[in-house]
């Protein structure tokens, strides 16, 4: 029977199942270079929950003897060997290693190029691994599920009224995430490969479309996702996120001649009339004229060139800015927008 | 402690000529030690009378003395050189014994010379059995009950007291010569009598036998500070009772629990600490397979054969580190040369299994007693590395070059008609073929329990042998599937073995291999199981996913000579190493393939890449397919490499040097004869026969005596001079059987002076470094003859003829590189043999003419002309001094082996003697070869009856001043003898005479020619 060892880095080793044939397990992968003493190693509590790979190729040569265990059970989660010795003749042996592992319900895999495995661990450090009975076929799906999440932070505050912001990371700045983090707000950062369903499954109370490099039309795959997101969640776009919100609603973007790069761009809020000095860094912009034929409304303009600096979806908790309210670097004038977003989530908690 | 600044010049004593029990491993250890000391800035003086060694090369030591290893000779050197210290623990037992004698002599105290490394007191404590016993008792280390006895009755009484079986170990005999195991009074009487006779002090140790225990060895390093490590543990496949040199050995230990391992490790370290070893040390222990009991067997307080094996098995260079410890450095101050980032103070971790199988000379000495016991008989060994016991064992089997049928089928033909019962009985007696007989027994259905009862070999190992035979049977029965082939490969089966079982083409096997994820790949030997990054260029093949050996490019592959055996000794390793040096100097990468753990060529620092692999076409082609070298050089690896040429050429591999066609022109009898006739070169008339009637007809036509031999021979294997039809018939029966369809050669036997030359040729011109004249006449193998250079009796005209013929042959076969040509000078100059490769005499001649002949030949192979390397065609000018090469025999180790010199080679090594004249050169050469001092001869000569009947011989000896005695069976052994001669080994009294001489350590000669040549009135004082 085959067994599959899948490493965190994606490498897969196929071998023969031994020990507990049915069991599948995840654990931290480590190697040991001891040539004797496998029984002591496997029952040592400091190896608890670890998948142990033996660099010496022949393991189990003298079986399992009484009075050798270092604790009352096998502590290792799983065992990886090049060859598991099947026949044992040592006079002290009461059972073979293989039978001992079966009895302890610990899976093992043999026939592995353990030297290659050791070199992988040496290069990448200790990593997670899974021992399974089938190749991890749902792995792409599951993998994506796991891999869309880049990081997550939990609110330190009262658990009852927690808001959950999902940040779609097109190249998010740390300080955007930090600006959201506060008592009562959980933040999860996901990749643009996320589907609408992926994001729904995270149960957000609001979604932030982050900044990022390049041409917004390169992210056309994500545009339909935004179209669904704005129907269901409070939405806040920053910079590239602002441009994507525009595209999602039918507006157009264009490449600016030399863009906005600096921390001194004055922006006028068309609703309040307030002017902020903002931090900016973009090479594309939303075509103000194209907004007219969309459900969106322009909320801010750059004072000098009159380019589009803000949008909102009237009647919905959906808005965006071209500038960087999180600053870093730059003035902190616009940091209040994060408070506004969170307030919107409170108000519109039940949108979806 | 930093290295010693108070010493500048260190003398190293080598181990001398190669004998059974003391072989190439000391060349490896000695060269490493010399280089290691020079690396630290010390000036090194080396003494060794064995020219066929790398250690005696000029670049290894600051000054090399190719002088006799005797106290007077060493004293002369010491007085001249005034070394500050002597390092005696690297020259085997010979080096150690000489150091002890020099110390007793007082010269060391007199000149204030220090002995480095382990102290003499320690050496004494480890080697003197009583002192060792006392020390073990003091340390509470268990040793088997024993008693030193001086007479038979005392021994028998003690045996009754401790119960049979008992081991008898004679005192002060090399390698325990003369010992054995006695199970009853009768055996006790035979063995103890022999032991007491052979012991110079009439002293034997009678010891409780622990035969059947697991035999475990630890290689320990300890420094001056007291830090110590285990380099590796090794477990013998054969249980206690067989000399570890004759046992199959695995590293690391396989069947010991961690508790057992640690207990034995503790014991080893306790002993090594108590002895205050400084350097390397070997500890041998016995573990009861059925209880916690263990015994300490012995301690070797020096670098040994086992330490060479441990060095190659782990990559940890024991001799090199031991030399550094000797000059004061501690283990944590010495870098690990493998990682170059960590220190020598660590215990290597292996991620593979190493198997060693000894190589015996019983293929030549078919009549010798093949029974293995406590006295070592192997001439060499092979090592193999794999991932499983089965793989490493089968790779080692493939490396043996012993018996193609047994090596491929594993079950020898002679066992086919034996019953399982017969086999179970047969394997009770350990012999060189026991492994194959066990395979045969398993094939006949014997259980591993039954085999264990017969052999006491651990069932763990037997179950692995069973896996191999089961796989063989599975492949016989079913279809060959990809899965099955992969499983077979994991057990070490190569293509040849698979194809012998199941008809499959190479293409089919490739296809099946491609269907699997895992393949034969190469892994690195790195001392640390890949825990740290290493760049050691040392690889072995095994089944796995990842190949670690990246092709070097711009490379040339050199085929090594495999295990050391009679006829193919350390000389070929010497030539291999020089070939590598020349390849590197010419700007190419040199890759070595070899499987001998004892030698310098398998030190990974010698070549750009070392593949420790069997020298079979399968293994070699796998490497060539990966490396895609520019070409392969086969001229320096003896017959082993030459024999691969045809298959390599078939596979489209480019052979550098003399082409396959040239090789065949000299090796194929018919082509050779055509060549000689065509070139008008005189040669003994001869013909070939494939059956007995043909042979008899040819012999009678030529006229007796005739020389008979198989074609494609090594070291004159299977050669004989026969005088009549009866003798010819007797020869033909086994010879035809062993010739595998190849014809038998029958030649006119021409008495005369035998000569040989090694030639260097670029394909157009021929350079002859020198003509060596043999002291003995034709009919005695050149390897067993005393060779003299320059020739002592040849006329200028004869020399010119020899050079002219050599030049003709070299040009005619387009020799590129080296060739060896042998002549008989009689009424004219006859050619008797051409070996299309570097020969045994290359190191001897190289050292005399001070030209690295193998390196020069390699330059020619790589395309240079003679002129470009500064050599003038023709004969190199002769020196004014005289040089003698003398053979060394190991008869004492091989009871029952034939001793009379003949066309079949018998010597295991050689030494060199130099002098202003022949007398002086012979005198110097005969010390370490025939163990005779021709300047201080006293006593009578004892002749066999056959030799006493030779009037001219007796007359000459009398003229030289000797009294003559004739040996007759049962006579009282004369006390004062100059030497013994028995030139025949047919009758019981002839055999007894030689045996008695050997056990009384009286110099023994086994050819009349040698005695007539050496003891001429004008040559002795």
From TrEMBL, chain A:
The keyword Lipoprotein does not apply. It is an enzyme of class 6 (ligase). Residues 1-132 form the Carbamoyl-phosphate synthase small subunit N-terminal domain. Residues 1-164 are annotated as: CPSase. CDD domains: GATase1_CPSase. SUPFAM superfamilies: Carbamoyl phosphate synthetase, small subunit N-terminal domain, Class I glutamine amidotransferase-like. PROSITE patterns: GATASE_TYPE_1 (PS51273). GO terms for molecular function: ATP binding; carbamoyl-phosphate synthase (glutamine-hydrolyzing) activity; glutaminase activity. L-glutamine binds at residues 46, 212, 214, 240, 243, 281, 283-284. InterPro entries: Anth_synth/Amidotransfase (IPR050472), CarbamoylP_synth_ssu (IPR006274), CarbamoylP_synth_ssu_N (IPR002474), CarbP_synth_ssu_N_sf (IPR036480), Class_I_gatase-like (IPR029062), CPSase_GATase1 (IPR035686), GATASE (IPR017926). Keywords: Amino-acid biosynthesis, Arginine biosynthesis, ATP-binding, Glutamine amidotransferase, Ligase, Nucleotide-binding, Pyrimidine biosynthesis. The keyword NADP does not apply. The active site is at 239 (nucleophile), 324, 326. One of its GO terms (biological process) is L-arginine biosynthetic process. It catalyses: hydrogencarbonate + L-glutamine + 2 ATP + H2O = carbamoyl phosphate + L-glutamate + 2 ADP + phosphate + 2 H(+); L-glutamine + H2O = L-glutamate + NH4(+). Pathway: Pyrimidine metabolism; UMP biosynthesis via de novo pathway; (S)-dihydroorotate from bicarbonate: step 1/3; Amino-acid biosynthesis; L-arginine biosynthesis; carbamoyl phosphate from bicarbonate: step 1/1. Its EC number is 6.3.5.5. It comes from the Bacteria. Belongs to the CarA family. Small subunit of the glutamine-dependent carbamoyl phosphate synthetase (CPSase). CPSase catalyzes the formation of carbamoyl phosphate from the ammonia moiety of glutamine, carbonate, and phosphate donated by ATP, constituting the first step of 2 biosynthetic pathways, one leading to arginine and/or urea and the other to pyrimidine nucleotides. The small subunit (glutamine amidotransferase) binds and cleaves glutamine to supply the large subunit with the substrate ammonia. HAMAP family: CPSase_S_chain. Composed of two chains; the small (or glutamine) chain promotes the hydrolysis of glutamine to ammonia, which is used by the large (or ammonia) chain to synthesize carbamoyl phosphate. Tetramer of heterodimers (alpha,beta)4. This is Carbamoyl phosphate synthase small chain. The lineage of its organism: Bacteria, Bacillati, Bacillota, Bacilli, Lactobacillales.
TrEMBL record, chain B:
Composed of two chains; the small (or glutamine) chain promotes the hydrolysis of glutamine to ammonia, which is used by the large (or ammonia) chain to synthesize carbamoyl phosphate. Tetramer of heterodimers (alpha,beta)4. Binds 4 Mg(2+) or Mn(2+) ions per subunit. Mn(2+) 4 binds at residues 833, 835. The lineage of its organism: Bacteria, Bacillati, Bacillota, Bacilli, Lactobacillales. Mg(2+) 3 binds at residues 822, 833. Belongs to the CarB family. This is Carbamoyl phosphate synthase large chain. Mg(2+) 4 binds at residues 833, 835. It catalyses: hydrogencarbonate + NH4(+) + 2 ATP = carbamoyl phosphate + 2 ADP + phosphate + 2 H(+); hydrogencarbonate + L-glutamine + 2 ATP + H2O = carbamoyl phosphate + L-glutamate + 2 ADP + phosphate + 2 H(+). Residues 1-401 are annotated as: Carboxyphosphate synthetic domain. ATP 2 binds at residues 709, 748, 750, 754, 779-782, 822, 833. Mg(2+) 1 binds at residues 284, 298. HAMAP family: CPSase_L_chain_B. It comes from Lentilactobacillus otakiensis DSM 19908 = JCM 15040. One of its GO terms (molecular function) is carbamoyl-phosphate synthase (glutamine-hydrolyzing) activity. Its cofactor is Mn(2+); Mg(2+). GO terms for cellular component: cytoplasm. Residues 931-1021 are annotated as: Allosteric domain. ATP 1 binds at residues 129, 169, 175-176, 208, 210, 215, 241-243, 284, 298. Large subunit of the glutamine-dependent carbamoyl phosphate synthetase (CPSase). CPSase catalyzes the formation of carbamoyl phosphate from the ammonia moiety of glutamine, carbonate, and phosphate donated by ATP, constituting the first step of 2 biosynthetic pathways, one leading to arginine and/or urea and the other to pyrimidine nucleotides. Mg(2+) 2 binds at residues 298, 300. Transmembrane segments: none annotated. One of its GO terms (biological process) is L-arginine biosynthetic process. Mn(2+) 2 binds at residues 298, 300.
């Amino acid at each position: 029977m085959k067994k599959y060892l899948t490493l965190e880095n994606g490498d897969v080793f196929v071998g023969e199942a031994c020990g507990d044939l049915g069991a599948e397990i995840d654990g931290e992968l480590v190697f040991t270079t001891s040539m004797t003493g496998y029984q002591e190693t496997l029952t040592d509590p400091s190896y608890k929950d670890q998948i142990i790979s033996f660099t010496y190729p022949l393991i189990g040569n003298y079986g399992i003897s009484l009075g050798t265990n270092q604790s009352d059970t096998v502590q290792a989660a799983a065992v990886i060997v090049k060859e598991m010795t099947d026949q044992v003749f040592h006079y002290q042996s009461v059972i073979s290693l293989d039978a001992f592992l079966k009895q302890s319900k610990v899976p093992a895999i043999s026939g592995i190029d353990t030297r290659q495995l050791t070199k992988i661990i040496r290069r990448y450090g200790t990593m997670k691994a899974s021992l399974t009975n089938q190749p991890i076929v749902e792995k792409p799906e599951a993998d994506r599920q796991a891999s869309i999440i880049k990081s997550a932070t939990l609110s330190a505050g009262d658990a009852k009224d927690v808001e959950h912001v999902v940040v779609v990371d097109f190249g998010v700045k740390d300080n955007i995430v930090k600006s959201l983090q506060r008592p009562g707000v959980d933040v999860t950062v996901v990749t643009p490969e996320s589907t609408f369903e992926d994001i729904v499954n995270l149960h957000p109370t609001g979604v932030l479309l982050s900044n990022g490099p390049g041409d917004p039309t390169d992210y056309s795959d994500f545009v339909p996702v935004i179209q669904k997101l704005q129907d269901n969640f409070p939405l806040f776009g920053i910079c590239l996120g602002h441009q994507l919100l525009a595209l999602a609603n039918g507006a157009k973007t264009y490449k600016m001649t030399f863009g906005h790069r600096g921390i001194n761009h004055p922006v006028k809020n068309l609703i309040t009339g307030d002017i902020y000095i903002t931090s900016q860094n973009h090479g594309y912009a939303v075509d103000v004229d194209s907004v007219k034929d969309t459900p969106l409304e322009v909320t801010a303009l750059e004072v000098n060139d009159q380019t589009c600096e803000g949008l909102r979806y009237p009647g919905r908790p959906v808005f965006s800015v071209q500038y960087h309210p999180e600053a870093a670097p730059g003035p902190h004038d616009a940091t209040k927008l994060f408070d506004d977003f969170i307030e919107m989530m409170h108000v519109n908690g039940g949108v979806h | 402690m930093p290295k010693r600044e108070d010493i500048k010049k260190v003398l190293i004593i080598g181990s001398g000529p190669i004998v059974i029990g003391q072989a190439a491993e000391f060349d490896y250890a000695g060269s490493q030690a010399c280089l290691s000391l020079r690396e630290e800035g010390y000036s090194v003086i080396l003494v060794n009378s064995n020219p066929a060694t790398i250690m005696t090369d000029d670049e290894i030591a600051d000054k090399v003395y190719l002088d006799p290893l005797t106290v007077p000779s060493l004293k002369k050197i010491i007085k001249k050189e005034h070394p500050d210290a002597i390092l005696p623990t690297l020259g085997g037992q010979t080096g150690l014994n000489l150091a002890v004698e020099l110390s007793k002599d007082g010269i060391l105290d007199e000149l204030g010379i220090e002995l480095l490394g382990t102290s003499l007191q320690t050496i004494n404590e480890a080697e003197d059995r009583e002192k060792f016993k006392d020390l073990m008792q003091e340390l509470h280390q268990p040793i088997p009950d024993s008693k030193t006895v001086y007479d038979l009755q005392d021994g028998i009484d003690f045996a009754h007291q401790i119960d049979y079986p008992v081991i008898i170990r004679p005192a002060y005999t090399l390698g325990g010569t003369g010992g054995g195991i006695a199970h009853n009074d009768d055996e006790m009487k035979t063995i103890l009598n022999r032991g007491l006779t052979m012991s110079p002090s009439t002293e034997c140790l009678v010891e409780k036998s622990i035969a059947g225990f697991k035999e475990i060895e630890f290689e320990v390093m300890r420094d001056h500070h007291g830090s110590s490590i285990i380099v590796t543990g090794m477990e013998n496949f054969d249980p206690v009772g067989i000399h570890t040199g004759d046992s199959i050995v695995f590293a690391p230990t396989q069947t010991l629990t961690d508790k057992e391992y640690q207990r034995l490790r503790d014991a080893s370290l306790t002993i090594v600490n108590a002895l205050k070893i400084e350097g390397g040390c070997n500890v041998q222990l016995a573990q009861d397979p059925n209880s916690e009991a263990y015994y300490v067997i012995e301690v070797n307080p020096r670098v040994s054969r086992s330490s060479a094996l441990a060095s190659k098995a782990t990559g940890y260079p024991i001799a090199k580190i031991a030399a550094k410890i000797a000059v004061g450095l501690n283990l944590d101050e010495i870098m690990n040369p493998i990682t170059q980032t960590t220190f020598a103070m660590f215990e290597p971790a292996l991620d593979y299994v190493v198997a060693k199988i000894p190589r015996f000379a019983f293929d030549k000495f078919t009549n010798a007693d093949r029974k293995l016991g406590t006295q070592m008989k192997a001439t060499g060994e092979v090592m193999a590395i794999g991932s499983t016991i089965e793989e490493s064992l089968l790779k080692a089997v493939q490396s043996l070059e012993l018996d193609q049928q047994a090596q491929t089928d594993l079950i020898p033909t002679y066992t086919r008609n034996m019953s399982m019962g017969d086999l179970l009985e047969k394997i009770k007696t350990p012999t060189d073929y026991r492994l194959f007989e066990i395979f045969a027994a398993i094939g006949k259905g014997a259980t591993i329990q039954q085999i264990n009862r017969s052999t006491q070999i651990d069932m763990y190992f037997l179950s692995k042998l069973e896996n191999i035979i089961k796989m063989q049977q599975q492949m016989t029965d079913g279809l060959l599937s990809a899965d099955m082939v992969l499983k077979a490969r994991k057990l070490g089966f190569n293509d040849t073995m698979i194809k012998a079982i199941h008809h499959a083409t190479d293409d089919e096997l490739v296809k099946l291999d491609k269907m699997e994820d895992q393949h034969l790949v190469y892994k690195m030997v790195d001392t640390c199981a890949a825990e740290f990054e290493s760049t050691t260029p040392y690889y072995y093949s095994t089944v796995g996913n990842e190949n670690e050996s990246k092709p070097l490019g711009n490379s040339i592959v050199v085929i090594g000579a495999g295990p050391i055996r009679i006829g193919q000794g350390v000389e070929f390793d010497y030539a291999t190493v020089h070939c590598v040096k020349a390849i590197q100097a010419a700007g190419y990468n040199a890759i070595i393939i070899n499987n001998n753990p004892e030698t310098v060529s398998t030190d990974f620092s010698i070549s750009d890449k070392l593949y420790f692999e069997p020298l079979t076409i399968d293994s070699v082609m796998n490497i060539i397919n990966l490396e895609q070298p520019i070409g392969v050089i086969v001229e320096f690896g003896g017959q082993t490499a030459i024999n691969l040429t045809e298959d390599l050429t078939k596979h489209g591999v480019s052979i550098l040097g003399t082409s396959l066609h040239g090789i065949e022109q000299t090796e194929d009898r018919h082509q050779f004869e055509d060549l000689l006739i065509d070139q008008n070169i005189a040669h003994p008339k001869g013909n070939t026969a494939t059956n007995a009637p043909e042979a008899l007809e040819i012999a009678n036509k030529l006229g007796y005596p005739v020389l008979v031999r198989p074609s494609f021979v090594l070291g004159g294997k299977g050669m004989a001079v026969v005088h009549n039809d009866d003798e010819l018939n007797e020869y033909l029966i086994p010879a035809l059987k062993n010739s595998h369809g190849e014809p038998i050669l029958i030649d006119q036997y021409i008495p005369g002076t035998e000569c040989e030359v090694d030639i260097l040729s670029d394909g157009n011109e021929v350079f002859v470094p020198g003509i060596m004249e043999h002291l003995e006449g034709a009919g005695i193998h050149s390897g067993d003859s005393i060779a003299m250079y320059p020739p002592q009796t040849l006329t200028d005209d004869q020399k010119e003829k020899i050079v002219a013929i050599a030049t003709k042959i070299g040009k005619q076969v387009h020799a590129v590189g080296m060739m060896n040509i042998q002549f008989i000078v009689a009424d004219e100059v006859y050619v008797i043999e051409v070996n299309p490769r570097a020969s045994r005499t290359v190191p001897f001649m190289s050292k005399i003419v001070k030209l690295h002949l193998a390196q020069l030949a390699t330059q020619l192979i790589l395309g240079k002309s003679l002129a470009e390397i500064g050599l003038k065609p023709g004969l190199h000018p002769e020196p004014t001094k005289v040089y003698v090469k003398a053979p060394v025999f190991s008869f004492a180790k091989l009871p029952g082996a034939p001793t009379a010199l003949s066309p079949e080679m018998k010597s295991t090594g050689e030494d060199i003697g130099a002098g202003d004249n022949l007398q002086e050169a012979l005198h110097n050469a005969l010390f370490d070869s025939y163990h005779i001092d021709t300047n201080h001869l006293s006593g009578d000569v004892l002749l066999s009856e056959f030799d006493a009947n030779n009037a001219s011989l007796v007359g000459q000896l009398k003229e030289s001043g000797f009294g003559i005695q004739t040996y007759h069976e049962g006579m009282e052994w004369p006390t004062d003898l100059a030497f013994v001669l028995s030139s025949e080994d047919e009758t019981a009294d002839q055999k007894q005479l030689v045996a008695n001489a050997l056990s009384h350590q009286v110099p023994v000669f086994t050819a009349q020619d040698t005695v007539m040549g050496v003891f001429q009135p004008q040559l002795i004082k």
